Amino acid sequence: MFEKVVLVTRKTRLADLVVRFNTKKQARFYVEHNGQDFHGFEAEDDTYRRAVDGLRSQLDVGLPVQQVDRSLVPTFLFTGKEVVVAVGQDGLVANVAKYVGSQPLVGVNPDPERFDGVLLPFLPKDARGAVQRTLEGRARVRQVQLAEARLQDGQRLLAFNDLFIGARTHVSARYQVRYGGKEESQSSSGVLVSTGAGSSGWLSSVFALAQGLTRCTGGTPGKPWSLGWEDAKLAFVVREPFVSRHSGADIVGGFVTAGQELVLESRMPQGGVIFSDGMEEDFLTFGAGATARIRPAEQSARLVVH
C-alpha cells in the first residue's frame, strides 16, 4: 500500500536569516544590532537539526525516506502511497494537511519547550512506532474537516484552519455577499471562514473582541461558537463591516454547510485575495468579477494520533 515515507521539514528562524543575509556571521550582526539574543536562534536551530537527523534514522522502516522542505509541498506530487511525517510547529501540519489528500499524516514535535504541539502528538522518539502502526493499518486516525474556496474558473484553495477573503493590504475589501437567501454589498476588513480545527484560533479572537466590547457597553456577551474538528460545517464572520449608502452589515456571520454555501463576488479592481491558514503566499487572486463559493471540502485531513 505504501511505497515511501515523506519527511516534511521547515527552515528555522536562523536558516531564514542566513538565506536573507548570506552568512551566519551577518545574521548574528543583524540580530544583536537589534538588541536580541542570538543564542536563542542558535539553540532553536540546533535542537531542530538534531531532531530531524534523529528522525531520519528512526524512520528506517524498510521504505525509502524522502525529505521535502515546506516551501516545495504545494508543488510536490503526492501519489497516495506515502506516509507523511511533518516535523515542526503546529502550523506546518496545518499547511501540509491540505496537500496530502487522504494519506495519513504524522505530526512530530521537535521542541516541546518551544511549541505547543496541539497537532504534534509525537516526540521524535515515538515517530517510528507511529509510522510502523500506520504501515500495518493499526494507527488511530482523527478526521479533520477542511474548508474549500472555489472560483468560477475551477481554481480552488483548501484550508485546515481558516480562509481569509479580502484585500491583500489594509484597505477595505469590497464585494457582494450571498448567504441564507439574502444578498448585500459590503465594505469590510474581509471575511474570515473557520473550520472546527481553526475555531480556537483566529475565530476565537473575533469573539474575544465582541465579548469585550459588549461588556464595555453594558451588554451581556454571547457564547463563542463551538465546532468539532470532524463537523461538516464552517463558521464565517465579517470583520468590521462598514455601513454606508452603498454597503450594509446585515450579513455578519453564520454557518456554512454543503447545502448552504457562502458566495462572494469581488468588487475590487486589484489587490483582492483569498489566502489559506495565514499563509499569504498560498492564495487565489480575487479581483473584480471573480466569484468564490465557500463550503466544507469533500476532502478531509487524516491525522495519526496516540
From TrEMBL:
<dbReference type="InterPro" id="IPR016064">
    <property type="entry name" value="NAD/diacylglycerol_kinase_sf"/>
</dbReference>
<keyword id="KW-0808">Transferase</keyword>
<protein>
    <submittedName>
        <fullName>NAD+ kinase</fullName>
    </submittedName>
</protein>
<dbReference type="GO" id="GO:0019674">
    <property type="term" value="P:NAD+ metabolic process"/>
</dbReference>
<keyword id="KW-0418">Kinase</keyword>
<dbReference type="GO" id="GO:0003951">
    <property type="term" value="F:NAD+ kinase activity"/>
</dbReference>
